[in-house]
Amino acid sequence: MSQKIRINRGRLERFCTDVFIKLGMPQDEAQDSAEILVAADARGIESHGVGRLWRYKNGLQKGIMKGAIQPTLLRETPISLVLDANGAMGLSLSKRTMARTIEKAIVSGAAFSSVRNSNHFGIAGFYSEMAARKDMIGIGMTNTAALGVPTFGRKAMFGTNPIAFSIPAHDGRMFTLDMATTVVTRGKIEVYDRENKPLPSGWAVDTRGKGTSDAHRLLEDMLYQRGGGLLPLGGEGELLSGYKGYGLAEVVDILTAILSGGVFGQAVIDSQATSARVCHFFGALRLDLFRDPEAIKFDMDRLLNELEKAEPAEGCQRVYYAGLKEHEAEIESARLGVQISEKVASQLRQIGEELGVELAGIF
Question: Which pLDDT belongs to residue 363?
Fold first, then answer.
């Protein structure tokens, strides 16, 4: 297993920002993109962190992805927004779209946005938490390249299609559910491939629709659309309710792609020469639509405290609520530095050397 190292968060963000600028992105877009990537690692979500920087580099160099792209406004009302991203980088675009959604919700109470023709947007929880920090319920979703195999199927028909939901408590605490609707994400499979580790049983199936532990073969089969893919939440068949994860994945496709007029299902394809044009959905609802925000946050305090104090199962140390592990990891990252694997650090060194980006003070 690759060794772990820790890097100052600010320095890591500056390095990634400089890389994006070297690749032709404007300063503000580069900073947003770096912030969102590093936020994933700071929260312990390495599948969506700076380990993906090489994919952005390759995409920008090949012209598959482009910076400085302005979205087209397709439809707008006081409570809604529909955009065509025109192939823009998904990170900064999504941050700006959620900011606009929040602005509308401040005025109208609630607002929703659907975006088509975009690119990978990082961790969905980054956007839902933007709203939670404004005393709102935040929602973020995206569809992805088809990687998930439906119940009783053998071919990928939908993406990992993550859903994020955030609501604040007091003192900066919040409940953040940020989950793929498949058992795991492709990024997690990539981590296992980098570490040369076998996949756990129940994560994925091969081209026959049978369980597989071969991460590298699975990634190739999914890239070339040979069949096989990730299982929906719940796993294989009906016994463990895999059909529920399958259904949730389709809900994400509907809200992100059907509402925006974008691409959905098996038509969302990644290849070596293209990048999947994915779709997003964002929502923000003011707490005072329902009750006094302080009263809601007081009850959220009670709920989170109860969950934290729940008696753990034998052999387990504690019970967590959604988002707690990530928020504790972020506090530790601020104190000790952001943790990345030595293999990812090696990739960053190579990127820095290739682009002439200064690495001093980082490693």
Answer: 65
267: helix, coil or strand? helix
The Cα 134–Cα 358 span in angstroms is: 36
Does residue 360 or residue 95 have the better pLDDT? 95
CATH 3.30.200.20 fits 1-68+337-363, yes or no: no
What's 24's DSSP letter? T
How far is the C-alpha of 180 from the C-alpha of 79, rounded, in Å? 27
DSSP state of 259: T
CATH class of 70-185+229-308: alpha beta
Nearest residue to 134 via CA among 89, 88, 164, 100: 100
Range 188-199 average pLDDT: 91
Domain residues of the chain, as ranges? Answer: 1-68+337-363, 70-185+229-308
**In 32-79, which ranges are E strands?**
72-77
Q: Cα 252 from chain centroid?
A: 13
pTM for the full predicted model: 0.94
pLDDT grade for 358, boundaries at 50, 70 and 90: confident
Mean pLDDT of the chain: 95
Q: How many CA atoms lie within 13 A of 255 on its CB side?
A: 21
Pairing of strands 4-7, 338-341: antiparallel
**What gap in Å lies between CA 150 and CA 295, rounded to an integer?**
42
Residue 256 has pLDDT above 90, yes or no: yes
Q: Which residue has the tokens 């299982």?
A: 231
- Asked if the model's pLDDT at residue 138 lies above 70, the reply is yes
* Whole-number Cα distances in Å, 172 to 114, 133, 165, 329: 28, 8, 16, 14
Give residue 136's pLDDT band: very low, low, confident or very high (50, 70, 90): very high
Cα–Cα distance between 76 and 282 in angstroms, integer?
Answer: 14
Decide if pLDDT at 273 tops 70: no
Identify which of 73, 71, 99 has the alpha carbon closest to the alpha carbon of residue 87: 71
